[in-house]
Amino acid sequence: MSEVVPKDSNEQVEHQMDSLIDSFNPLKNKLNWLLISLPIAVFFNFQHNLTMAFLFSMIAIMPLAFLMGKGTEEIALRTGEAVGGFLNATFGNAAELIIVGLAIYAASNDPAIQDTMVTVTQASLIGSILGNMLLVLGLAMLWGGLKKKEQNFNSDAIQMNGSLLLLAVIAFIIPSAIQHSNGSLGDIENISRYAAIVLLVIYGFALLFQLKTHAHVFATAPGHGTHEEPEMTNRDAWILLILATVLVAWMAHILVHSLEAAVVEWGLPELFIGVILLPFFGNAAEHFTAVIVAGKDKMDLSVAIAVGSSVQIALFAAPLMVLFAWALGVPLTLEFGMLETAATFLSVLVVNSILADGKSNWLEGLMLLGSYLILALAFLQL
């Protein structure tokens, strides 16, 4: 005898499937129209038109990263804003990790493009830190400030993240100091690898501190933001997240494969592509999620995404890529260059200063955006 499924259960399943399908519906979200770039990128890659393949694969990563952000936002509604911010930062940085990981792997297989890939990888890592601290946080503060005159967030949690960023900057400054003191490449590589191990250990203990032993410090204060009910089941949110991540990996593979051709044909500086273009498209998940939740007066989550992403890139992604490159024989170090290191150091100081009082407004957001624009123009001139 066949099992009879209750009508309410059928309606619930249909509603859940509709929510998952709606995530890809261009009529529900206009950004999904950019998903057309995915097959176009595949077509140009098949036709060996590498410049156009680079352009459309980079564009395709934007809506896919947004869908990753949608999945993590749904999961975050069930976990609280501290864990939710960590998940958003982690999967928001997944696209960036995939791109730089594939770039390092390509460099290990083709010595002719090694210098370009190392430069772009280093620039992309720095660009992600700067983009999250200045662009993403600036947009979130500006949009949230236009919705509400003044917004509050947990300053204690931000101070810890700010201290972690300063620690990372120290690890970036030392190799640069050795470089400008006429130190050997071997010395720079060794200190970078040792520093990478230390940063990874510190990051692990920071997660233990944030999610376990001192989770109460990062808890959202009552009354912040508005309560929302999840639109998708936990399973469907994870399906959306995994599917979007796989497609991002595909587009990142095409992007890295065609990057060298784009650098030559467009004549853009490698630093500009790495610091500005790749992080802008690759970190689109943080861009949209952080700004959207700021507009809902969830500044704890918004700041956790933006600053948390910078911390994760500085203390996890960059050190991990240094060790990954070491294993593949690629000379990737934490010596990012004088301008890149100085820009990161000054940006950390500016952000820590703005966030110290636990309050934000639209003018502070505009100041961060102005800082980012100045740095973007500087990298364009190199």
Q: How many beta-strand elements? A: 2
CATH superfamily: NCX, central ion-binding region
Strand content range? under 5%
Within the CATH hierarchy, at the fold level, what is the topology? Answer: A middle domain of Talin 1
> Mean pLDDT across all residues, rounded?
82
Main beta sheet: strand number and arrangement? Answer: 2 strands, antiparallel
What class, by secondary structure content?
mainly alpha
Write a structural description:
There is one protein chain. This protein has 382 residues and is mainly α. The chain has one domain: A middle domain of Talin 1, CATH 1.20.1420.30. It is built from 14 helices and 2 strands. A two-stranded antiparallel ribbon has the order 1-2. Helix 3 crosses helix 11. The radius of gyration is 21 Å and the shape is globular.
What is the strand and helix layout of this fold?
Layout: H1 7-22, H2 37-46, H3 50-79, H4 81-92, H5 94-109, H6 114-147, E1 151-152, H7 155-180, H8 185-213, H9 234-266, H10 270-282, H11 284-295, H12 299-328, H13 338-355, E2 359-360, H14 362-381
Antiparallel strand pairs: 1-2
Summarize the structure.
The protein is mainly α and 382 residues long. The chain has helices at residues 7-22, 37-46, 50-79, 81-92, 94-109, 114-147, 155-180, 185-213, 234-266, 270-282, 284-295, 299-328, 338-355, 362-381, and strands at 151-152, 359-360.
